TrEMBL record:
Keyword Transferase attributed: yes
Alphabetized UniProt keyword annotations: Pyridoxal phosphate, Transferase
Name of the molecule in the record: Ribosomal-protein-serine acetyltransferase
NCBIfam families: PRK10151.1
GO MF annotation terms: acyltransferase activity, transferring groups other than amino-acyl groups; diaminopimelate decarboxylase activity
Domain of life: Bacteria
InterPro entries associated with the record: Acyl_CoA_acyltransferase (IPR016181), Ala_racemase/Decarboxylase_C (IPR009006), De-COase2_N (IPR022644), GNAT_dom (IPR000182), PLP-binding_barrel (IPR029066)
GO biological process, one term: lysine biosynthetic process via diaminopimelate
Domain N-acetyltransferase, first and last residues per copy: 420-579
Cofactor dependence: pyridoxal 5'-phosphate
Organism this protein belongs to: Brenneria salicis ATCC 15712 = DSM 30166
């Protein structure tokens, strides 16, 4: 029955977590991984019952929880992603490139290029994407197979904006495939929708496309049928039966067999049951705090908000009370309100829920989309726990801070005077053109003792690096200064990392060879030592450099650093391990006035 039954083990796990002191007022998500794995094994078994060559792919846009994706990779499923960012998540979870499908209506050049390099299957959505792929493949002088998304009937006899029509295929896609020596057709993708009440819409569209597919499908080609398998949230009717995956698979199989009995054997089938696997197995657990009499109802203030549950009004979510055994029968009309500062932050509209003040409750159906699209606005996102092997584990920690605290650049600039000609200023992407020119000019020299020049191949790389340095600078995780000589950028001086607990900073620097011999680095380091010693922020300063890097060793000595010893084979650079000297300077080393 749709959204009605919450397993008792989930209720008990939610109660156990809610009873923890840290969750006296803090909400959380709970994800039933054990139930997901049961569904995966059932799905694998029933799909093989009907199709000899079949793949199951999980969609990271539905659920990107790391524990979930790792286990799906471990179960030999494939991953469907929509960007290079999701691609990297899939790789981190254990999916190899040949088990990843790049899908979706929009893919930029970076997405396409990355997927090509990783050997992923790419489903193109337009002639533009195919044209860009052809150019990328030609540049690599390699041959790649691609899939083509085809458009289903969406509503009122109109085709979906996703995929191409038969006319577009013949007039735009096919000519590109024929003219490109580097691309060939591997198959098609027919996505009809998700969370469908029945397989009827899928089979109707499949019947519509079958003549085209039989005519154009390459030998051994694939047909990706998308993600129509429903979660219980497909209906708000608690008495509505949720159609099981086997019903969908059997109807698809029957449709293919009726048209041509050999099709299930000739084609590889791909299914993407993302919401079916994850949605019903995710829960949000919150608490009522107090209520006011408004709108002819008790309006309960909760510790959840609709920005954490974006799907709350898009599909049905059942409500379960966790601790309602006080013996009091409550029949008042009630509204569950969120914590945001606008009137319509409403989790549940007027109804009889049996709530009381201090009531813990559980919202089902939050395992797809909510956990990853929940956004931080006035409060950090709550943690995610999981039930794995019947044990409660932490699957995602609460976000550390609101985004402005760890992603926004405040541009509270510093300006440290070294002498009449030298200044140290906070990093900014406005310096990227000049600094990138210096890197290019000194690339061979810098690469002798530093690895990072290999990764600095465009001015935009320098700009992103400077932005990252600024962010670390304002969070006191590191300190980076652009060295200005006669008001022109000539290098960088930084604390590459700061050990706050031990008040230790690790110094790094580089300088344009064209201005060497002016004492710029030596003077700048001495001023920086004094500056941070005076602020009582750093006590111990460390310089590590290759024993063969004569200039850096001399800088450390000129600045009064003491050689503490040699680290054997401590740095891997240019295919070899190098010994490093380690120097230190502490506040007591400063000359007494």
């Amino acid at each position: 029955m749709a959204q009605k039954i919450v397993p008792e083990n989930i209720i008990q796990a939610a109660k156990e977590i809610a009873a923890r002191p840290e969750h006296a007022n803090q909400p959380f998500f709970l994800f039933d991984v054990d139930a997901v794995l049961t569904k995966v094994n059932d799905m694998k078994a029933v799909s093989k019952k009907y199709f000899s060559d079949v793949d199951i792919a999980v969609s990271l846009k539905s659920c990107s929880l790391g524990l979930f994706t790792r286990l799906m990779a471990q179960e030999d499923l494939n991953a469907e992603v929509c960007s290079v960012d999701e691609f990297r998540l899939a790789e981190a979870a254990g999916f190899s490139g040949d088990r990843i499908i790049l899908d979706g209506p929009y893919k930029n050049v970076e997405d396409l290029s990355f997927a090509l390099d990783k050997g992923a299957l790419i489903h193109v959505d337009s002639a533009r994407e195919l044209h860009e792929l052809a150019e990328l493949a030609a540049h690599r002088d390699q041959c790649y197979g691609v899939g083509v998304r085809i458009s289903h009937y969406y509503r009122e006899g109109q085709r979906s904006r996703f995929g191409v029509t038969a006319e577009e295929y013949y007039h735009k896609i096919l000519p590109l495939l024929i003219s490109s020596p580097h691309l060939y057709l591997k198959g098609f993708h027919l996505h009809v929708g998700s969370n469908l009440e029945s397989p009827q819409k899928i089979t109707d569209n499949l019947n519509d496309w079958l003549p085209f597919l039989v005519k154009n499908m390459p030998k051994g080609g694939h047909l990706d049928m998308g993600s129509g398998f429903p979660a219980d949230s497909f209906s708000s009717d608690v008495n509505a039966e949720t159609c099981e995956p086997e019903v969908f698979l059997r109807r698809i199989f029957d449709t293919l067999v009726i048209y041509n009995p050999s099709l299930p054997e000739k084609w590889k089938l791909i299914f993407e049951p993302g919401r079916y696997l994850s949605e019903d197995n995710g829960y949000a657990v919150g608490k009522t705090l107090s209520f006011k009499q408004r709108y002819d109802a008790q309006v309960f203030q909760t510790n959840l908000g609709i920005n954490w549950l974006p799907s709350i009004h898009n599909w049905h979510h059942s409500l379960t009370l966790l601790d309602s055994s006080d013996g009091v029968q409550r029949d008042d009309e009630q509204i569950l309100a969120g914590f945001n500062c606008f009137e319509n932050d409403c989790l549940y509209p007027k109804g009889r829920y049996g709530l009381r003040e201090g009531q813990s409750f559980m919202i089902r159906g939050c395992g797809a989309y909510d956990m990853q699209t929940a956004n931080e606005w006035t409060r950090i996102k709550p943690p995610v726990y999981a039930l794995l092997n019947k044990r409660i584990v932490t699957a995602r920690v609460a976000s550390p801070a609101l985004p402005p605290a760890y992603r926004d650049l405040l541009h509270n600039d510093e300006n440290i005077r070294v002498d009449d000609f030298i200044r140290l200023v906070t990093p900014s992407s406005r310096f990227s053109p000049a600094l990138y020119e210096i890197v290019n000019h000194n690339r061979k020299h810098f690469s002798e003792y530093m690895a990072w020049p290999n990764y600095m191949n465009h001015e935009s790389d320098e700009a992103r690096f400077l932005d990252a340095c600024y962010l670390a600078h304002q969070k006191d995780e590191g300190k980076t200064y652009v060295i200005l000589f006669n008001d022109e950028p000539v290098g960088l001086l930084s604390f590459n990392s700061i050990d706050k607990a031990n008040k230790t900073a690790y110094i790094g620097y580089w300088l344009d060879m064209r201005v060497e011999g002016n004492g710029i680095i030596t003077k700048s380091i001495k001023v920086l030592l004094h500056y941070y010693t005076t602020k009582n922020m750093i006590k111990r300063f460390v310089i590590k450099c290759s024993v063969d890097n004569i200039k850096s060793n001399e800088v450390a000595k000129r600045c009064g650093f003491e050689l503490e010893g040699k680290l054997r084979e401590a740095e891997y650079l240019n295919g070899h391990f190098h010994d490093q000297n380690i120097y230190s300077w502490i506040a007591s080393d400063a000359p007494k006035n």
